[in-house]
TrEMBL record:
InterPro entries in UniProt: DgcN-like (IPR011669), DgcN-like_C (IPR035086), DgcN-like_N (IPR035402), P-loop_NTPase (IPR027417)
Highest taxon listed in the record's lineage: Bacteria
Occurrences of domain D-glutamate N-acetyltransferase-like N-terminal (ranges): 41-124
Name recorded for this polypeptide: N-acetyltransferase DgcN
């Protein structure tokens, strides 16, 4: 799906910032794509954007209203429907990361049809993908992989795109999850694709490109996670990465949501290379990205230095310190932009 910006971020009347994490993630990385926010009375979240009515946002040029809030079960509250209909009547498309399909609600479907507007259900894809072919594609690719799920693969990929562009590289972030799709304006929530077509969907996300072009592909799950390894493997094969970055959270001992012990970083490097060689024999690890939020600055710096010495790779926290050291590795191996 291709979602047009600028965005109006709809926060509804959510009770706290956590319930608006989709909107906040978009604003963190694509603030310049966001015209403003629309909040209902009682909303306790604030994305730091200008509060605007739907009519004012449309007049200012907003092309898509993003339902940037989440709730238990991914439901769409009945009292939000009127705001969505108003946005469609004002000439905007509407996109949502909720589980419920926007078009399953009659009033929203009718408003979209009468205005000729598009509805984007980012957790669902209506596209038909081919099975993966594994054929060599032109261009270069970096994939973020993890010792576990929810360890910062999306933020690492976005930080890598930002810092590579700052060095002059022709580079694009490629989204494989719903928040990433909002941030990039394009992509597929890969965990919602039928298993046989995962690698083909990733080939679509990152097509053949100029040899000097880099795609930085958002990873999902972990090859070691018993719940999500199937998605992770299909993504790895479809991404056909030349290089990968291992993402890690240092305080965990078992994988999220299960009792499986956390693999070592070396385990992840070895298995990623072993499996990734199927579609790219030249795959290699270029760095380690660590979520050090639970560590003080001195402790974080010492831990990163320890990892770098142990693995012979640059190690950094993409949020705290950026990805410059890993970009240096790209320059060393593949040459400057």
């Amino acid at each position: 799906m291709d979602i047009a910006n600028p965005y109006l971020m709809f926060l509804g009347d959510v009770p706290d910032a956590l319930a608006a994490k989709t909107a906040l993630g978009v604003v963190d990385w694509r603030r310049d794509w966001c015209i403003g926010q629309n909040r209902l009375p009682g909303c306790q979240a604030d994305a730091g954007l200008t509060d605007m009515s739907i009519a004012a946002a449309a007049k200012a040029g907003a092309k898509t209203m993003i339902v940037g809030a989440v709730n238990a079960g991914g439901r769409l509250p009945d009292h939000w429907v009127a705001s969505i209909v108003e946005a469609l009547d004002a000439g905007m498309d509407v996109a949502s990361g909720l589980h419920v399909r926007l078009g399953s609600i009659p009033a929203i479907k009718e408003a979209a049809e009468r205005n000729g507007r598009q509805l984007f259900d980012v957790r669902h894809s209506d596209m038909t993908f081919a099975t993966g072919k594994g054929s060599k594609r032109s261009g270069k690719r970096i994939l973020t992989v993890g010792t576990d799920c929810s360890v910062g693969k999306k933020y690492t990929a976005l930080a890598m795109e930002r810092d590579m562009r700052a060095r002059g590289y022709d580079c694009d972030f490629r989204a494989t999850g719903q928040t990433g799709v909002f941030i990039s304006g394009r992509g597929v929530a890969i965990d919602a694709v039928v298993a046989d077509f995962i690698s083909g969907a990733v080939e679509w996300i990152s097509p053949a490109a100029d040899e000097s072009h880099w795609d930085v592909i958002e990873g999902q799950g972990s090859l070691f996670h018993p719940s999500f390894a199937g998605v992770t493997l299909g993504l790895l094969h479809g991404a056909q990465p030349d290089a990968f970055i291992v993402c890690h959270e240092p305080t965990r001992r078992t994988m999220r949501g299960v009792q499986t012990p956390l693999p070592s970083i070396q385990d992840v490097i070895d298995l990623t290379i072993q499996c990734g060689k199927l579609t790219n024999p030249d795959i290699r690890c270029i760095g380690i990205a660590v979520n050090t939020a639970a560590l003080g600055d001195a402790e974080a710096q010492a831990y990163l230095a320890e990892l770098s010495a142990k693995y012979g790779l640059p190690a950094t926290d993409p949020v705290r310190y950026g990805m410059a050291k890993v970009v240096d590795k790209v320059v060393e191996i593949y040459g400057a932009a």
